Amino acid sequence: MKNVLLVILGLIILASGTFFVLNSKSQATEDTNKKVLVAYFSVTGNTKQVAQHLANAINADIYEIKPKVLYTKEDLDWTNENSRTSVEKNAPNFRPEMSEDDFSPSNYHTIFLGFPIWWGKAPTIVNTFLENYDFSDKKIILFATSGGSGLGGAVEHLKKSVSNSTEIKEGKLFNNHPTKDELKKWADSIL
Prior knowledge:
Distance between the termini: 59 Å
Oligomer: single chain
Strand content: 15-25%
Strand order of the largest sheet: 2-1-3-4-5
Number of strands: 5
Radius of gyration: 22 Å
């Protein structure tokens, strides 16, 4: 009888431990669903500055999309049809390689994705980023910097690089230097 009671007590403790582990996993999943990431691509530093201020304003993690071969000033010369960015614009299926890293979007539910506008779209390295990782069931909110262009067809262009379950939302274009408070107010209005 004593052994039977010990076995029953052991099963109760084991069941309680299993319940605790299940609850811990549930909490971890819930926390992951609330995590926010600010990912960005920047060459001149304008988008980087907005991304850093945004990440600080909303207490989000930050990730820089880095090309394997860095862009130079000459690469950005939009008046030269042989510049790197002009060649990439004319080959919309071209995907610049990214530098190696250990990034995983699985820890995030919402991603703010920032980039400069090049010819009314995101640079093709942003497509590389979206195609290199699984963003299924994630919400991606775009933001961009530009000297004069609007967001143009960025949303439709980038939707081709993610699964149907990924939600890409047009966010905001920043032509000036927004304050941390302005960025927080904007982010809070769409989160």
